[in-house]
Amino acid sequence: MRNIRLILQFDGTDFCGWQIQAGQRTVQGDLTAALRALTGQDVSVVSSSRTDSGVHALAMPVSFRLDSNLPLKAFTFGLNALMSRDVRVVDAIEVPPDFHARFSAKEKTYLYRIQNGRIALPLERRQAWHVVEPLDLEAMRDAAGRLVGTHDFSAFRSAHCDAASPVRTLARVDLSHERPGILAMEVESGGFLRNMVRILAGTLVTIGRGRHPPSWVDELLAHGDRTRGGQTAPPQGLFLKSVRYLD
């Protein structure tokens, strides 16, 4: 039995997230159907993350086991020939039997993109959140620094989050100009709560708009009340950028 790891890149706009859902188009559903067509087997695919509807991936690792002698190139070129152009396998390798795309992951990096300006640019509408008001980048960076470390992130998770503990450790929260008019936020951690990165982005934008000072982050971390926190930023700006493994 072989254990295969793929790296997927996809535009999540027309997907209802990663996980298979009855009557909905999902990344897992499209990949599973392509694997069935390629191998003749029903393959159970696991991913490093369960992205929500509209969320993208630059490099999402997934893994699966199967009994097949197909060459690795069949899991790139063969699968890509069977899937639509908004999802692609960019790499395929054989990994040790104990590798698991989700449970073997040590650190994930998410990217959130904001298009800041008066005009909503058509080429960014599917891959960035359009914010009209000018943003105070230094205030946002001040607030971002307060998020780094180990905290109770109850004020930064969805009401539907079922994680046993709200405590997470953020290794970094960086903000930079990808190019003029495009602000990029990168967040790195060993684990995230549901909608956490989008809530972080919404909170920092609220501060950037001048509606709260950077110290508001300290208050949110202290009281843990989601209803008093920032909005959940829209999904189209969010990308799973990379996943790090010890192997």
Give an overview in words:
It is a single chain. This protein is of the alpha+beta class. The chain folds into two domains: 2-94, Pseudouridine synthase I, catalytic domain, N-terminal subdomain (Alpha-Beta Plaits, 2-Layer Sandwich), CATH 3.30.70; 106-245, 2-Layer Sandwich (Alpha-Beta Plaits). It has helices at residues 27-39, 77-82, 137-147, 196-208, 216-223, and strands at 2-10, 46-47, 56-66, 87-94, 105-116, 129-131, 149-152, 167-179, 182-189, 238-245. Strands 1, 2, 3, 4, 5, 6, 7, 8, 9 and 10 form a ten-stranded mixed β-sheet that branches. Helix 3 packs parallel to helix 5 (216-223). It is globular. The mean pLDDT is 96.
Topology pattern, helix = H, strand = E: EHEEHEEEHEEEHHE
Major sheet summary line: 10 strands, mixed
Structural class: alpha+beta
- Which stretches are low in confidence, meaning pLDDT under 50 for 5 or more residues running? none
Radius of gyration, in angstroms, nearest whole number: 19 Å
Which percent bin holds the helix content?
10-25%
Q: Strand fraction band?
A: 25-35%
Overall 3D form: globular
